[in-house]
Description:
This protein is α/β, with parallel strands linked by helices. 34% of the residues lie in helices and 22% in strands.
Amino acid sequence: MSRSPTHLALLFGMTFTVAAAQQAPPAQQAPPAQQAPPSAVPTPSPKAIAAAEAAVDALAARDFAKVFAQFAPPMRTALSPEKLSATWDSIQAQAGGFVKRTMSRAEVRGLYTLVIVTCDFERNKVEIIATMDSADALAGLQARPVQPAAVYAPPDYATPAAFIEREVTVGSGEWALPGTLTKPAGAGPFPAIVLVHGSGPNDRDETFGPNKTFKDLALGLGSRGVAVLRYDKRTKVYAAKVSQLNPFTLKSEAIDDALAAVSLLRKEPGIDATRIFVLGHSLGGTAAPRIGAADAGIAGLIIFAGAVRSLEQSIVDQLQYLADADGVISDAEKRALEGSLKLKETVSKLTTADVTSTASIGGAPASYWLDLQGYDPAALAATLKQRLLIMQGGRDYQVTVSDFERWKTALAKHPAAEFKLYPALNHLFLPGQGKSLPPEYAVPGHVPIEVIDDIAAWTKKK
């Protein structure tokens, strides 16, 4: 499973979790076709496919007790019918009401069968992914928006002759991550930036459909004399292993790997070790002050739409925004809002005695919420000596201008803090008009050259 809070449903450009047991089965990769004849490839069981489709039909009928009855024992300890109902409402609050299921496909992974059921909702297509065990019981249940075909074209401001890209490995041992270093042509030494992802199991490019925010940054900055290191997120590369972590925290999700990436850059020839920066987007921006506090040698932090509000409050606010967008609050939206308020209340009552609990709270264990309890990113940033650049899109409904204003207030006396607001940009730092809504993220675009130039100029300041 992807180990991420349910609020990822609200970051619709990423992925979102319907439910997944803390003991979700390992997602073992099927062997490449050339290593075995077709006759050796296991055939998915028709019974498993039928059971998965029955579960989806029960969800659509709001028969959550029936879905619960299909759960394998680990799922029953992680998710109740009531929590399943709240999460289903959250999905419909974003994607619209359920219309129909359209097709199913399946593949065998070790002892499990992965059944992907594509469904039409009023505003989006959604894939519901059911992991069936050998007894055709539900061992995992997830959902994700169907992304449009990813047709990415480099931005006009990218100059391929100005940089060289090569594959690198961030970290070592059990959490080693594949990455890409974009390095300006020439001897250097060059300033460099580590890119830290937002929520969810992101790839190194922060891909959503045709859009790749991190790749835009890497190509644009590499063309302007700034090296960029980006890598696939731990929750993408090691989804099954991460699902077994307890405690699971922001440190294990993002911070440790960002620090490993900084360490890698310090050893790279042609990189100015005194001018290594960290750019954190969304959740990465929230984590950035902790990264800076953990390594005082980092030259500066770029907060790229970093939330200051608590996760649980952000969930409430985002659902309210989406519910209000069309002027009519549907029953599903109302139930989702009520569920978000219950989640907020549950999180507020957590104590250190709950840290080892394996129960799922909004898609994450208690340890995750406890790690963030009382954390004020802006207040921590105010204590740091590193340079700070706070960047915000004016049309961003996930991390809002109110977050930006809180950064400005907290850092008003910081001697090396700068602020940039881009009125036309959304959460992915892509331009648009009017209210920003999830379908906008599927419209092809690029991070504007203004943003690239502002980062490059700030990074090169002495």
